[in-house]
Amino acid sequence: MEHVAVWIAAFLTLGIISFLYKDNPWYKLSEAIFVGISAGYWFVVLFWDNIYGKFWVGVFPPDVVDEAGNFVSHGVPDYALIVGAVLGVLMLARLLPGVGWISRWPLAFIVGCTSGLYLMNYFSSNIMRQVQGTIIPLFGIGYGASVYEIIGNIVIVGGTFAGLVYFFFSKEHRGAFGATAKVGIWVIMITFGASFGYTVMSRMSLLIGRIDFLFGDWLGLIK
Amino acid sequence: MRLLIHTTLFLSVFIFIGSSRIFSVEPSPQVQADTLVNTADTVGVSVAPVTSLLVDDYKYDNGEQLNLSWVPSIDDQLIDGKVSVYRVYRITNDSTRELIAELPPGSNSFTDKNLNRHDTYRYIVAAVSASDDEVLSTTTEPVQPQREWINFRRGYLFLLALIIGGAVIYYIQSARRGKKLFVRKIAGLEAVDEAIGRATEMGRPILYIPGILDMDDVQTLAAITILGRVAHQIADYDTKIRMPVSRSLVMTAARETIKTAYQTAGRPDQYSDDMVSYVTDEQFGYVAAVDGIMVREKPATVFLLGAFFAESLILAETGNSIGAIQIAGTARPAQLPFFIAACDFTLIGEELFAASAYLSGEPKALGSLKGQDVGKAIAMIVILVGVIAVTIGNAWDVKFMNDVKDMLTTIFSTQ
Amino acid sequence: MSSTTRIRELAVVILILVISVIVYIGKIQGWNNGLMFSPAVSLTVVIVIFLLLLYILLRTLQGHLIGRRTVFLFVGLAVVLPFFMTLTLKFRVSPEVQQLYDALSELQPGSKVLVSFDYDPPSAPELQPMAVAFLRYCLSHDLKVIIIGLWPQGPQQANLALEDALKSKEVAAKKPEYGVDYVNLGFQVGNEFVIQRMGTDFKSMFPKDYSGTVYDDLPLVRNVKNFSNIDYSFNLSAGYPGTQEWVQVAVDRYGLKMGAGNTAVQAPMMYTYLNAGQLVGLLGGMNGAAEFELVTNEIGKGTKFMLSQSFAHMIVIAFIIIGNVAYFKSGRKKKL
Amino acid sequence: MRREVPLFITFFIGMLLIFSVFIPPMESLGEDFTVFFDIIAVFAFFLGGGNLLRVHVSKLTRQKRDWQYSIVTLLGFAVTLVIGLFKIGNPGGIAAAPTAAGSLFQEIFDYCLVPLGATMYSLLAFFVASASYRAFRAKNREATILLIAAFIILLGRTPFGTVVTGWIPESFDVLQVPNLAVWIMNAPNLAGQRAIMIGIGLGVVSMSLRVILGIERTYLGEDKS
Questions:
Q1: Which CATH number does the domain housing residue C179 bear?
Q2: Is the bond into B268 cis (omega within 30 degrees of 0)?
Q3: Same domain as B383, residue B328
Q4: Who among B102, B104, B321 is closest to C254 (CB)?
């Protein structure tokens, strides 16, 4: 059994890697397996987690028992969950001709949720907290900063300021305003360069892990 | 200039309201425990009990939390401390006491959560010595957690949201009344027209990838709103669109969107459900399938808009290898450099959310962009004023500057 | 596509499969003991790669952009070949790794070391070599190891690491016994609250170990009540909950002495803790694992991985340089 | 009607959630709605999964190009579904978690999905290199800046970087590549991140308002009865 499993894993690994050469039957086969199994996998997980774990157990909660298994009290059902299930069923109205438009209701609900929730979340975490975080003393607390730190502080404040100028939509980037916007895009480019350099490192380790599997665990060529 | 005036106006109103502190709150009455100390038996190595145990309602919650505070035992010291742990006991509705928390030495407060506001609670805090001798404090008077209807702690958040949200709505309204608005060019969006035209000329499909997250992510929502505009042009040109998605809900929403676009363009018969297809929820399974579609169907134009993670570069490089024009955009800074490297045009962060308004060209949608700029102006002014205040206040200890800084940090603090 | 290419491609695939089957049978039968280049061969390989890169530079200078597949081939070679090389990359042991080693070597035999496995398989290439090297050192120096996990798959990774560590000669000579010399207490939900509870009582959080044995039946931990019974602790972390939480709760509140192993992405954030003395020793990414193997004189996967990684980075840097040199040479006109 | 009701639902729910932040008894509303979302998403999967089946069955029956692979996809989908939903080969039986250790379902995950996913992910290493060769060029000032920053960070985190600038004296040690890398991460990188994040925050606020107010409504379809 163990031999079969490691061969399957190796076969699929090579199939995906073969895509680097070109699209080929081996890749197509691996892709077909990947899509089929993973779609099934996620439905099963979602079904047991959400429909059973959240909905069914929520509406028909098991009795509360103590450690010895004696009955303590009935669970408290959460009937509000039925609203969720009804919205879910309405979603299926698309399958019926004529009443398909009803499925827009759950969609409208979801869109309303997403926009309402994110509006406030982003407002506090992205706007307020970041603005507050940028209010820093340039010379450090009690002149405590070194020259490098002072330069760093000025760059943080000035860079944030210039970056915001770049994103201005309703003003043409001309003159002093345009120059500041230019500095802004430079700062943003440094950010991108930094995250590029930073992520390249961890990307390599994944490939190394796969190679270790192929030549070590599978073929036993690595000591 | 107008923008500056408006911003200053908004800002002054808000500082005025802010400084008058309309949301100041009466201090809540506290229930004080008997300050008489239980003189414990001094047998063995026991320790002095904690004193001044207070319970008060946790403010602005749904009646689910209580705050406890106390003065630590005098034997609880950093060096040679004799207290090994504090135990917090709770008595619910006169039942027996139960242990609810163990806290390390040095603790002097605790917040008890998940209470029921219909029950009453009493508390005891025990100081425990190294030899496990427990010395109890007095028991507090029974307290019920209170429910408050409005969270005044978030008053400034409300105010700020009102100002920035108000600015957006104000400009939408003024645009609706026919006021002309200037919006600068966004290169990535100027290219949309050309990219669709190219696909039409070449007779190849357009691939639209809305990211890998579900409709409960705001980037996906942005991708769907942009799809509405893009699909409209696609329908006009009568080009083919291909949209594999990784979430069922996104599939449903995308179908509605494209269908609408075809109907508005007057070609409802050209629309087919097959334009949008569900692949799999699995991140890399989806990527494998999209890569396959790219190399097999060779789309002339690829849109990568929405929430992308590690797959950003895999998709963008494969798209590049087939020679497609690629327009990408995401709000995840870590993935943007990869899009910039491998795509022809990239929408950076905020531009992704502004895109649908920009593409629509409708005055009211454009008005909202100007509203956003007010927010930016406020942020910039606050940063400038704040930094000057805190720098001067710190360096020369100017009281006024310190006050300004304190006010700004209070207003912008989030809880 | 012509049919001859097709046949050629098929032949290559079949060849690969046949070789794989033979090598695999060799692995099972025991006559395949791994492949290793001699130093001379290794050096030659490196030189050949370097020359090929020079050739690519030349080609690019002449205005021929090399294809994607060539780039892929180079990356593949750069990652695969170092696995078989006997080259030792010269690198110096950074102070934070030395610090970890010093802290470990100061421990008396019999000291108890707590190791928390807070990562899952995707981060394993970076963290597993550290885990193996660390466990190997502890078990071969009579340090008692207590393992826990705050990530669900952590204890599973720990067992894999133990398996590897036990294979080493020095460790095997000591014949470590489960429950006496090392123990795996398994996973517990609750993130930093688990750490907090462990500050007063280990047993309440881990009533049974990973295989279901009752806490008090394990001689090693029977007398371990809380952090005060632990002499050193090591946290392998790939995110939340991880080193930050351990430092905030276990170190700051309970005064635990601890070191950490982090992914390369996370490690830079830990230097503040290191400078403040809250962490005693830090291993960052594959480099960290390799350096630790160097100070403990046990060459393992960390060194191999690190060699691979350094090669891969060099290749990426080389390609950036080649691309740009060619771009400037061509007068920045041609859109290469 | 068909259009007004959904618009009202979006408006009402959106506003409710915005105000719930300030009203403690309603604060958990967002979490409750998230659970609703999870439930709706599973129902929606009947549409998605159904679409997957339909696409592949039609490929199969019409013998379109590559129809053979559709058999594999359909088989994989059906087998995984049956094994997972009925918990076949699960030592704990129907009461156990579907992903219990040792269950057939978990084996499928460990031996098929994990290697497939990890390998797909590891392709990134190759694409990083090809993108670096082709695209990271000092084409203009912006690209140059990006390139230099990336280069310093890259160098700063390999042993090579330490060697290259090790000669720089202690008093100017900030110019040593590893230290420079740290400085870039902490100063300009932070500034750029902040500007982007504040911008995104405002973008989200504005877009959400457009959606809630019904200015953005293409996703709701046309009212043509």
A1: 3.40.50
A2: no
A3: no
A4: B104
Q: What pLDDT does residue B40 have?
A: 42
- Give percent of chain B with pLDDT exceeding 90: 53
Number of domains into which chain B is organized: 3
Rounded to whole angstroms, how far apart are CA atoms A118 and A124?
10
The size of chain B, in residues, is 415
pLDDT tens, A125-179? 889 989 988 998 888 766 667 888 889 999 999 999 999 999 999 988 899 999 9
Tokens read off for C195: 């750490």
Q: Chains that contact B by 3+ CB pairs under 8 Å?
A: A, C, D
Residues B221 and D211 sit within 8 Å (Cβ to Cβ) = yes
What are the structure tokens assigned to B90, written together?
Answer: 């709770």
Contact B367, B172 (CB under 8 A): yes
Question: Does A4 reach chain B within 8 Å, measured CB to CB?
Answer: no
- C74 and C133 fall within a common domain: no
Give me the number of domains chain C comprises. Answer: 3
Strands of C182-276 (E only): list them: 182-187, 232-237, 258-262
Residue B143 sits at φ, ψ, to 5 deg, of -130, 150
User: What's the confidence (pLDDT) of residue B9?
Assistant: 56
Do C151 and C262 fall within a single domain?
A: yes
Interface list for D 82-101 with A (CB within 8 A): 84-85, 97-99
The answer as to whether B369 is a domain residue is no
Q: How many domains does chain A have?
A: 1
- pLDDT-derived band of residue B100, with 50, 70 and 90 as boundaries? confident
Amino acid at D135: A
- Token code pair at residue A49: 């987690």
Cβ contact B305:B346 at 8 Å: no
Same domain assignment for residues B114 and B2: no
Q: Compute the distance between CA of residue B80 and CA of residue B86 in angstroms, rounded to an integer.
A: 16
CA angle at B331 for the pair B327 and B336, rounded to the nearest 5°: 60
The answer to whether residues C261 and C154 belong to one domain is: yes
**Chain B residue with Cα closest to D30:** B216
Interface contact D207-B284, CB threshold 8 A: no
**More confident position, B244 or B101:** B244
Domain with B80 in it: 37-136
- State which amino acid sits at residue A211: I
Mark whether C1 and C61 lie in a shared domain: no
- Asked if residue B281 belongs to a domain, the reply is yes
In this complex, which of B184, B337, B389 lies closest to A195 when CB atoms are compared?
B337
Radius of gyration (C-alpha) of chain B in whole angstroms: 31
Distance CA B159, CA B166 (A): 10
Q: Which residues of A touch D194 (CB under 8 A)?
A: 130, 133-134, 156, 159-160, 163
Q: Which residue spans within D35-180 are E strands per DSSP?
A: none
Asked whether residue B328 is domain-assigned, the answer is yes
Mean pLDDT (chain D) is 87
Q: How many other CB atoms are there within 10 angstroms of residue B187's CB atom? A: 12
Enumerate the residues of chain C whose CB falls inside 8 A of the CB of residue D136. Answer: 320, 323-324
Do residues C79 and C99 both lie within one domain? Answer: no
Instruction: Please say whether the beta carbons of C334 and C63 come within 8 A.
Output: yes
Calculate the CA D44 to chain-centre distance. Answer: 19
Tokens of D19: 């105000």
Domain span holding position C318? 37-88+302-336
Sign of the dihedral through C-alpha B346, B352, B356, B361: negative
B113 and B238 fall within a common domain: no
pLDDT digits (tens, 9 = 90+) for C98-150: 999 999 999 999 999 999 999 988 788 889 999 999 999 999 999 999 999 99
Q: What is the pLDDT of residues D154-203, one digit of tens each?
A: 887 666 676 777 777 777 777 778 788 888 888 899 999 999 999 999 99
| Residue A196 structural domain | 136-223
Interchain CB distance below 8 Å, B102 and C68: no
CB C245 within 8 A of CB C192: yes
Taking residues A39-57, report their average pLDDT.
91
